[in-house]
Design a protein that fits this description.
The chain is largely without helices or strands and 68 residues long. It has a domain of 33 residues. It has a two-stranded antiparallel sheet. The N and C termini lie far apart (63 Å).
């Protein structure tokens, strides 16, 4: 649970599920207060400062070769 930065007093609740079906089941049964919003996101890559297995790889630019 987090306090919203741009709107003090609002609360942001972060929840996770193992799969799409579990998230959909929660979404179908959730009773939200008026004005509340429910957002669903998908994490494509998950990596940290030391575990870089899923991090995008950087390859330096290659200079073009001009054939004469």
């Amino acid at each position: 649970m987090f306090d919203a930065v741009l709107t003090p007093g609002d609360v942001i609740l972060l929840m996770t599920w193992r799969d799409h079906d579990a998230a959909a089941a929660y979404e179908a049964s959730a009773h939200l207060p008026d004005g509340a919003r429910l957002r669903r996101v998908r994490v494509v890559r998950d990596y940290g400062m030391f575990d870089r297995r899923e991090a995008p790889q950087y390859y330096p630019a290659v200079e073009a070769r001009h054939e004469t």
